[in-house]
Design goal:
Blueprint lengths: L2 E10 L2 E10 L10 E6 L11 E3 L1 H9 L3 E2 L1 H10 L18 H53 L1
Parallel strand pairs: 1-5
Antiparallel strand pairs: 1-2, 2-3, 3-4
Length: about 150
């Protein structure tokens, strides 16, 4: 008989509460179970003592007899030091966008970069034009003063 340690959902609508149970793998999620070995309440803060309550000795017993924890229960057990750390593999390549979609995304990114560069160049040109106008105004203001000095 394949035995699993998994979460069985209890609680009201939109107020979940889970029992950590040891059950036959063929039984439904909330169906018949062999033993309840803990509870998990996701509605309380993460540092709260009642968020995850387990019977460590019973969990060790069931793991030694061959019970397989589900991914979520294995993560809980790893955080408590009762089991090995679960390794998650990267997403498969087939979930990536196909070649044409990747080309479109690349073109969009290039267009964005070009727009940013154009805006930066326009701003620099605007600053340069403002400085040139300022220098021209300064030179024009100095020219009449120089002419008055010569005439006197």
């Amino acid at each position: 008989m394949a035995v699993k340690m998994r979460l069985a959902r209890h609680g009201a609508k939109k107020r979940p509460f889970y029992h950590i149970v040891v059950a036959d793998a063929r039984m439904p999620r909330d169906g018949r179970y062999i033993e309840r070995v803990g509870s998990y309440n996701p509605m309380v803060p993460k540092d709260h003592a009642e968020r995850l309550v387990v019977k460590e000795d019973r969990i060790k017993h069931w793991i030694s007899t061959g019970a397989q924890p589900t991914d979520r229960v294995a993560r809980f057990l790893a955080n408590l030091g009762l089991g090995p750390k679960v390794e998650y593999r990267e997403s498969p390549k087939r979930s990536l966008p196909k070649a044409k979609a990747q080309e479109r995304l690349k073109e969009k990114e290039e267009a964005k970069l070009k727009a940013v560069e154009d805006a930066k160049a326009a701003k620099e040109a605007e600053i340069a034009a403002a400085q040139a106008a300022k220098e021209a105004a300064k030179a024009a203001a100095e020219a009449p003063a120089a002419e008055e000095a010569k005439s006197e």
